Structure formats: structure tokens, C-alpha cells
Amino acid sequence: MTKTVVNQALKQHERKTVRFSDKAGYERYQKHLLMDHVVLPEAASQRERFEAVARSLRDLLTERWLHTQQTHDKENPKRVYYLSMEFLIGRTLTNNIINLGVEDYVREELQADPHQDWTEVVETEPDAGLGNGGLGRLAACFIESLATLQIPAMGYGLRYEYGIFRQVIENGFQIEQPDHWLAQPDPWEVAQPRQTVQIPVGCQFELHDGVLQAKPGLGTHLLGVPYDRPVVGYGGQTINTLRLWGAATPDHFDFGEFSSGDFVGAIVDRILAETVTRVLYPDDSTRAGQALRFVQEYFLVCCSLADIVARFQRTNDDWQLLPQKVAIQLNDTHPAMAVAELMRILLDDAELGWDETWDLTVRTLAYTNHTLLPEALEKWPVRFFELVCPRSLEIIHEINRRFLADVQQRYPDDDQRASRLSLVEEGGEQQIRMANLAIVGTHSTNGVAKIHSDLLRTRVVSEFAEMFPERFNNKTNGVTPRRWLLAANRDFASLITESIGDRWIADLSELRHLMPLAEDATFRQRFLETKQTAKKRFASWLESTAGQQVNPETIFDSQIKRIHEYKRQLLNILHVIVLYNRLRENLSLAIPPRTFFFAGKAAPAYRLAKLIVKLINNVGRVIDEDPATAGRIKVAFVPNYNVSVAERLIPASDVSEQISTAGYEASGTGNMKFMMNGALTIGTRDGATIEMAEEAGEENFFLFGLTAEQVAESRSYYNPRWHYDNDPETRAALDLIFNDHFSRDEPGIFTPIRESLMDRGDYFMHLADLTSYAEAQQKLGELYADPDAWARKAIINVACSGRFSSDRTIAEYAAEIWDAEPCPVT
């Protein structure tokens, strides 16, 4: 049944694309320049031109956007609401042009301005600062696929004024600067002040030495102001909405208080509101940062649930219909407070009984887990709940009391089990375990790759899986091919369409038709030509924007992801140092020239991750200055990694680095983007890489290292010093770091890395996998020396990447978790 539903959803793009025609396109563009900016076309800046183009396109899609909403209101289908703290949507202009099918319109009408440099106009749009990593990019792919599959849906997030930060590199160090992406008006968003919601906060705040501090007692409230962005499905038939909440305070002014000098309270309220949605991921190394993060999550949940319930009540008057008309997906534990908040609404506002309320809540909510790291499963101090949302805390305690009664009834002689499963962690400061709350309070808990879901069920939360086996399932992640192949890699996408037709754009399984072409010499040559074009284009862009010169004739080997010990950028740079030593010892050593690209941001408080960034940059500088290696290997750290950088580097990459410690990467989605763009993967058997290798055949991957089972089994006896003592290349590489070869002007700076690897046990087992990794890299280099053989494997990878479309993932969510169906907008 599920397979049939999935196939139907994926095949529905047999229909025709909506045609948008506008004979007055250029006139509308000119009008926006004149009316919005009071500027004539010949005097307009590229930013003003971008805004005029974007607003012209928004004008074009608005009627369809409204028609989508009207259709959903009229048909009253089940709607999906996707709650996420991140939506890493990147730039919007090009994606909307492609999904609307209006490239001819843009080319013929909007580019008629002789003063307009189209490339500069596109580059003027900033990446929306609404996310940081894979979780946020997944959410962006998912809402695009929901619209493409015509499933009635809304995304809910926060309208951060600043992104996580803008990364610059100075003397090898990561420096964080403000990412004020909303410094200029965003032409895509539409403020909806009439739909503002009021959010109660259980305490007041005072300003002490410039820091907000909670004051128990009388409460206050915030206003959640919605800002809507269109989410255009491919073909332009359905245009869903991404609603982002901005925090504000009531517009009131007590002149009496001001006249008496008591105006601090109003200032504090305004500071609080501005702070809540000021920045993505405040520094959680401080109590104040943790508290702000907690308030952000509470604010997102309360605003979104209020809006969802209001929408439900517009077309339904029976609360029993809630699970039949509403599906709410919690993207990780960040929105887990939705369990308590939906209970509160049904108990206090709808005045339903507890049992009825609990049944409706569980059947409405579903939870996606994104981590296997126990420390990444959120816990919030009970004190935060007492101050901010005491009613939610009362409800959570009652949920926990009833749940533990069930646990004790099922396991009467196991008091420790009840302690482990409790929603409240005792000992020291009491904390609420948000993952436990999410599992208990929803009808579905899914992982995002087969190995992740298996490990989640058997290790991380095994006792919950024992209690609720029917709730646990897997939904392997996917990415949208519209952005990550059609838009990002136009030359290769054109070659694919020329060879097998264009149905692959809406049904990525069609890429299977490329499989025979892996044996076609002409196609292999054309594939290599498109790859070389992408490499030259990226090299030119990197030099013009970052001043770094790279040789497009070298292997482009890329590891682009958040900097974290388990993702093992440190393993990658250790191998680079091994190569460096080999070349210094044997100047005639034959290896294909290679450029190692690193890109990603380290959390500001994550000192070791930031030191790894420093090591990468220092190694690159030393290699550049050494005559033995200059021109043969190169390390390039690409600063300020974001969606737009990925759209350039992924199509240009020959090699995809997916080298996390096995058992720690939930899924990955960058691995999928690389695969469908013709890069070969070197990686561990972790996350979705396992399923990718199953699809394409392990012989077309470069897999290495310990498996997840071997990692777990070796914990009790693993000794990194053994590898230092017995692996000569490992010892030589480490000695260069520890003896300050890469830090002659900063002696001892990398001591924390030595301590992590040698003194604290190398928890993520870099040294255990280094030799195996180097051997796999050797095989990779040997294959690259045979372009024909390399192209054959790369094309097979592309042909087998169809399973990793987010359309397939969303179709599975719809059929197996949400019970949601398409609602065609005619």
C-alpha cells in the first residue's frame, strides 16, 4: 500500500506545468524600481535591480499563492505543519524562477534593462540567515517537496534578524562577525500583522548591568508577528507558505510612567522582544544564552500552535477531527514543547478532559530525531519552565506521573528503568528531557537513515522502543533535485535532459536511465567536460571572492559540513599531513595533484573545533610555502560556508568526504548532493552513505574504517597511543603537529589537539581509522589516473541517486506518518 501511494505521489508531475505569462513584465519591473526606490533604471544599483526583479516575480506568483490557500480552505484536506528552528533556504530568486517555469519570461522581459548585469543581480541576494547545517537544509528541501507533491502544508520557524554568524578567517582563526541578512528589505516576505498572536511569559525581566534577568512574579507577554514567504512547488501548481515569527512588544505607551521617570520597564520589554528573534543559536555556553535559546523554542511553539489551532477552527468545529485534519511534525527536539502546549490548549481553552486531550495530542504530533549523540538530546532546567511557562511544567509533570505509572505497572521490579525513562532527570539540578517528552507525546518517532533508526531503536532509546515498538520507523533523508542538480549544475542537468528527457526533474528515479550511458564513451567524455567546466567556474569564483588560487586540473576533494569532532575534519587533515610527509621524503613520488577543500563553521564556544579550523589553515599555508609540495597538493579553506557556496562547490567536486566516526552521523544530505552531481564518495559505513553504496554498489565507493559495531565493541580497550607507537606514518604526522612544524610562530597552540587524541582517548577514533583511510585515498588516486574508469563509476553513482530525492522522503512521510494526500490546485 505504502509503495503504491509513494509511486503515485512521485508520478503526479505527468501534468502540465502552469504557464505564467505577462506581457508587461518589463514595465512592472520599471515600476518597482520607480515606486519602491524612487530611482530611474539607469541610476539603480544592482541591489535595487534585484529587489525589482524579485518583486516582479512575486507579483507574478501572488495570484497562484492565494489560489492555493483558497483551494485548501475550500477542500479542507488534512494539512501538514512542519515545525523547525532552522530553514536553511539559501537564495530564493533562481529557485523560484526555475520552479515557476518562467526563465523565458525573465530572459525576454526582465533582462531587457540594458544597465542590468544579471549575474550581479543574482549575487546581490543574500543567503537567508535562517539555518546553519543539515537539519535546516533538510527542512528547506522538505517544504519545497511538499509543494511539489501538492501536499497542503506550512513550515513554521523564527525570523532571525541575524544568521548564526558570518565567518571570516584571520591568521588561520575563525572570526565571527554579524550576519545581518535583513539589513535591507527582503522582497519575498509578506508581513501579516493582523494575524499576530500573543504569547504569555510567566515572569518579568529586569536589566542589570546590561543583562536581562528574569524576575519571578507577575507575568508579561510577547507578540508573535508572522512573516510569510512563498514556497513554490516545481511546475508552479502549488505555492505553500513558510511562516516565520518575529517577536515584538505591544505598542502601548504610559505617559504617566514616562513622566515620573519609570520608563525602564518599557525599554526592558522592547529589549526582550528584540532579543528573542535576534540571532540563530545564541551561545549556549552561558546560562543567559541557554535561557534565550529556551525562550526561542517556547516562542516558536506557542506562536505556531496558536496559528495551527486557529486554522483548524476556521473549517472544523469538532475537536475529535484534529488528528484527521492536522499533522504536526517536530523537526528534532527543539519544538518538543509542542506536546505540553497542545495539551494546554485542549485542556484549558477547549476544556476537554485529560484522556481525550492526551489521545488527540499523541495522534496529531510526530517527532523526527536527528542525532545519536546522547549529549545532543536537549535537556532544559526545570527552573526555566517555572519562570517562563509554569503551566507547561504542570502539564509535563502530570504526563510524567501517568507515564511512570504505566512503566511501573509493566516493569514492577525495575525502579531503575522508571528513572531512566522519566521525563524529569533528577540529581543536582532537575531537568526536563525533551527527547523523552517528544517520544512519549507523539505517535511516531523516526530516524533519518536506516542505520540511524536501528541504532536509535536498539541503543539510544531502546527502552522506549520496547514500550512503543509501533511508533519507531525510518525515513531516509533526501534532497530536492531542482536546487541541487537542475539549478546548481546547469551544464550537467542539460546533458542529462538531452540524454534521457526531463522527467527526472520531478521523478529522480528516472536517472536510472543513465546507467547504460556509463558504457558510452561519448557520454563519459561529455560528463568529464561538464565537470571540468564546473571546476573552472568555481576556481574563478574563489579567486575573485576570497583571493585563493586553485588549479582546476587537480582532483577537487571536498569536505564541507559543520566543524565537529565526530565529522572528523581532523582525520582529513591528518591524511593531508601523511601525504605531505610522503612527498617530502620522496620527491619523485607519483600522485595525482589534489586540492583539498574544507568549508564549514565551528560553533563560537566550541574551542577544539575552532582550533581544528586553525590547524587546517596553518597546514595549507606551510604546504604552499614548501617547494616539495607546492603545486602537488593544496589545502583550501573556503570561508563563510552557506547554501550558495555549496551550490558552486558541489558540482565542481570530484571527491565527496563522508568520514564521520561510524555510528555518529544520523544521515547526511551533503553526501546525496555530491552523489547526484557525479562526485565519488570516500567514507565510512555511516548514515545514509551505507544506503547510497547499496544502491550504486560498494565497488563504486571508497569505503574504509571501523563499522559502528566495531566502534562500540572497541570502546573498552581502544588505545590511541598504540597507533602512535606502531604506525610510523601516524607518528610522523602527529609529531609534525606536536613539534610546532605548522605553528613555528605560535608554539604549543595545538596542544589541546594532542590532549584530545593522546591523553583523553581519541573518543572519535581518528587514529584507529587513519591507516585504512590513507589506503582508500591511495586507491582513489589510482582510479583518477584513468579518466575513463573514473567517469564510468561517477555516472553509475548519478544513475543510482534517484532514491535520495526529498520527494521520495516526503511521499513516505505522507503515506506512513501523516496520512496526508495531495490536494491539486487547478
UniProtKB/TrEMBL annotation:
Any one of the GO BP annotations: glycogen catabolic process
UniProt-listed Gene3D superfamilies: Glycogen Phosphorylase B
Cofactor: pyridoxal 5'-phosphate
Record keywords, A-Z: Carbohydrate metabolism, Glycogen metabolism, Glycosyltransferase, Pyridoxal phosphate, Transferase
InterPro entries: Glycg_phsphrylas, Glyco_trans_35, Pyridoxal_P_attach_site
GO terms of molecular function: glycogen phosphorylase activity; pyridoxal phosphate binding
Keyword Glycosyltransferase: yes
Domain of life: Bacteria
Keyword Transmembrane: no
Positions bearing N6-(pyridoxal phosphate)lysine: K673
GO cellular component, one term: cytoplasm
Pfam families per record: Phosphorylase
Annotated catalysed reactions: [(1->4)-alpha-D-glucosyl](n) + phosphate = [(1->4)-alpha-D-glucosyl](n-1) + alpha-D-glucose 1-phosphate
EC number(s) given by UniProt: 2.4.1.1
Family statement: Belongs to the glycogen phosphorylase family.
PANTHER family: GLYCOGEN PHOSPHORYLASE (PTHR11468), GLYCOGEN PHOSPHORYLASE, LIVER FORM (PTHR11468:SF3)
Function (record text): Phosphorylase is an important allosteric enzyme in carbohydrate metabolism. Enzymes from different sources differ in their regulatory mechanisms and in their natural substrates. However, all known phosphorylases share catalytic and structural properties. Allosteric enzyme that catalyzes the rate-limiting step in glycogen catabolism, the phosphorolytic cleavage of glycogen to produce glucose-1-phosphate, and plays a central role in maintaining cellular and organismal glucose homeostasis.
Protein name per UniProt: Alpha-1,4 glucan phosphorylase
Species this chain originates from: Rhodopirellula maiorica SM1
